[in-house]
Amino acid sequence: MPVVIVIAAIVILAGIVVVALGRGGELARDRPAEPTQSDFRTWSDVASYRPPGALLGYHAGATEHALAQLAMVIAERDAEIDALRKRLAAIQSADEAEWQTSGAADQRPAE
Known about the structure:
This protein has a domain at 31-104. The chain has helices spanning 2-20, 43-48, 60-106; strands at 53-54, 57-58. It has a two-stranded antiparallel sheet. It is 65% helix and 4% strand. By secondary structure, it is mostly helical. 1% of the residues are buried. The termini are far apart. It is built from 3 helices and 2 strands.
């Protein structure tokens, strides 16, 4: 008789685990598609992202994929900001050189 109780407990626990993993038929949750770079356009997109859950915490693979996508988006933005800063510095130095040249011409004595 105790063997039957142990087997019943194992079957019940296995059923609980299956349902908790989302494979319980009507209770199953659809897994959202893994995020792409276009899913993280603004800070609110990043703040509102919730990785899919798992039995204990979050689904590790989906979370790692989302973090990799975030890292790529941030790296691309950093590169774009750096390029724009270099262009701005070049424009400012050209304007400053032009201003100094035109200022020196204005200061020459008139003949």
